[in-house]
Design brief:
Order of helices and strands of chain B: HHEEEHHEEE
Number of helices of chain B: 4
Oligomer: heterodimer
Number of helices of chain A: 5
Largest sheet of chain A: 6 strands, antiparallel
Distance between the termini of chain B: 22 Å
Strand content of chain A: 15-25%
Structural class of chain A: alpha+beta
Largest interface: A-B, 71 and 70 residues
Strand content of chain B: 35-45%
Largest sheet of chain B: 5 strands, mixed, barrel
Structural class of chain B: alpha+beta
Order of helices and strands of chain A: HHEEEHHHEEEEEEEEE
Helix content of chain B: 10-25%
Helix content of chain A: 10-25%
Amino acid sequence: MRGYKGHAAAAAAVICVVGLAGLVAMQVREQRPPAAGSGTPRTADGKPDLSGRWGGGGGGGRRPVVGEDGVLRIGGNYRKGNPTNGERDSGLEQRVGPSYPLYKPEHWERVDYLDNHGNVEDSAFHCMPAGVPRIGPPIKIVQTPTELVFMYQARNTWRVIPVDGRPHDPVNSRDQTFMGDSIGRWEGDTLVVDVVGFNETSWIGWPGYFHSGDMRVEERLRRDGNVLIYQATVHDSEVLQEPWVMPERRLNLNTSPRITYIEDPPCLETDSANLTTRERG
Amino acid sequence: MRRTFVGLAGAIALFVLTVPLAAHHATQAEFDKDKRATLTGTLTKVMWVNPHAMWEMEVTDKAGKVTKWTIVAAGPGAFRAAGLSAKDYFKIGQTYTASIALARNGSNRGHIITWVMPDGKKINLWWEDPNDPVVGKL
């Protein structure tokens, strides 16, 4: 447990530095209440209609502001006006979130190593796909009676989720992929997606949270009015003591007539060759 | 143009992400934010790529020597979200001024802080003033 304790102690120390106010702000942002709305729309076959554009623009940006001086400000509202704090706080937020995977004792040392060498070890840093479940909820869903298509902004990624009762494909489910082999089913009004067939390259979270190739992810999606509620659970008995229930994510239905699905430009990472320290944020 | 900026900002507010994506980070490992420079030169290349948009500039010193610089920023999505298109705002051959944080390895590379466009408009990509009155409006 030494690694785990070290990890927790480091996190606790940083919490003290940042102060509780920042953490409270983070929690408030995460717990945005569901949008007021009518009942949940349903498809012709009686299922909740998950189709739609969910969440914001997928641009990764913060709200731009024009000051009295006419200068357009795109950057974030960083603590003490220091952009370095922006990165450090973001890294902290991802390390001390409301939930984290509980690894078996012998694996914490590796988690610590990966976290401390994330600029080298995190495949997402080097333009690889985030993979399921790190990529989070889809920003667009197209639903038919037999399948759902999940679309993500990052890397122009999409997944097709069959809901026609088929089992996992015997070959694809033993493949080594970032997004896995998915099959879906309806449990009442909840879409449950079972995903297997992962590589050992992707992570399930920023702080060095690795997984084995035998990871199984269960995603649960439901719609409450105009809110999509997404929750994922990571099952990986090879490295985890217990399944990791990831924090729930809520996305509002985006009804803007201007919203669209645009190309995510290719990823060309040139930072690695110019890094002089291990700091990542 | 300020009015245009205000309009863009207002329209784009509708499109802000519900939950921010994990940023690429590590700029502190690459750039010294206390070591600054201001370059004025000709924009020679625009690279609208992830994880960071990049530009190349040619800067001519008083002796006439031309030096090529690479300027790094946030991802293209941040510019999209702010209503800035690559073609309309970053034009090859025109003169721009870039305030940058210099690369720690001494190469001709910097992280953009503020762009001054050919028409004098300013775009600030890092929020640095804790007393900035607009900070509280976010």
